[in-house]
Amino acid sequence: MDVAEPERRRILAATSVSYVVVILDTSIVNVALERLSAAFSAPIEGLQWVVNGYTVSFAALLLTGGRLGDRYGARNAYLAGLGLFTLASLLCACATGLFSLVAARVLQGIGAALLVPGSLKLIDHASPNAEKRARAIGLWAGCGAIAMAAGPVVGGILIDSLGWRSIFFVNVPIGAAGMAMTWRIAHDGPRVKAQPLDILGQVAAIIGLVGLIGVLIEAPAFGWTSPAILIGATVTLFACTLFVAIERRGDHPMLPVRLFRSAVFTGSVYVSCASAFVFYGLLFVLSLTFQQVRGWTAFETGLALLPMTTMVAAGSMLSAAIVKAIGSRRSLSAAFLVYPGGAFGLILAGTTTSYAYALPALLAIGFASGFISPAATAPALGTVEKERVGIAAGVLNAARQAGAAAGVAILGSQVTETITQTSGTNPALWLLAVVSVVTACIWWRMSG
Predict the structure, then answer these.
(1) How close are the terminal C-alpha atoms of the chain, in Å?
(2) pTM as predicted
(3) How many folded domains does the chain comprise?
(4) Residue 50: what pLDDT?
């Protein structure tokens, strides 16, 4: 049954507000890294956990968050997620140490894993008409694109004027406003018949993902052959193997492995993961470089990142037209070849020359990132049945979050000891280029 227009507008307003906050948190925290390092005497490994505490919990619980929305109602899941996210933001702002900040960031990720799929389900239920639903989702995604573009600048202004805690305090009134609007929503849509949750699979996924990111972050400090890292790697391998076995044999798997029988779907998941690896890993590295090497303030760093994040929005808006003109196979492969071009441009520009030399590379990388996400989504969803579109979209989003966490862990670790040197970011940039070229080749083969 269709929903009245005033109700539809309330739903769209409430869900868009929450999505803006979630997307802001993926970019705004990077601008605060230097202040957090000074406040808590945190090494790069600690800063990586601040970023990844949020991203890892978001990625690991996203599929279960969507299922909980099906089971208990999208409105209830959305309210629970937004309430937890808002409370966790307050805890982040009040953190007295690095551990408490990372723990609060984990809670933020759990809240996001509930509210993001819940918000999409609310929009879907409120707009049975395909045209209205497409416009609503477009506006919802557009708000996220604006948040991504504005995040570094907004963060810089807040940090320089009110301190790093302000980037978390600002979430509290926004989250409260979103909850107040959601309370007025009467329509929740139909609930799916209760199915057993994949608890064992979820636990294995959490252990595997946390273990992998932990090993990647801590190995440079402990040493790759240290007992702690070897034990961590063993536990990670066991958890990942167990997860695959559970998902293949379980009656109600959180991740239906038959989705990966399609080479196009598998390639799209890998492409989504690799693009997030490159973009968010580079965002972490550049944020540190601009502040620690160039000595820029948080606001100056936000302005420096603005061209790149703005081009993410531009690439996203032009993606459909480009794919329609030349196809997803050629366009996605070409987009991944833009990444190494941008990386070489940043290598040539260095870390101490005029920012103008780095600007073209930043614009190119931002556009490629914005283009890839929607361009990889359409072919993947086109390979699954209509009733599995939701779970397929959840898999793609989880892959992006996992890729972002891995990018921060691996590319961030490349500059642990050398960031103060002129060529300190070069190892990360060379690795970025290699991953991008390999991904272009893989997609060309799997999509053919």
Answers:
(1) 41
(2) 0.86
(3) 3
(4) 93
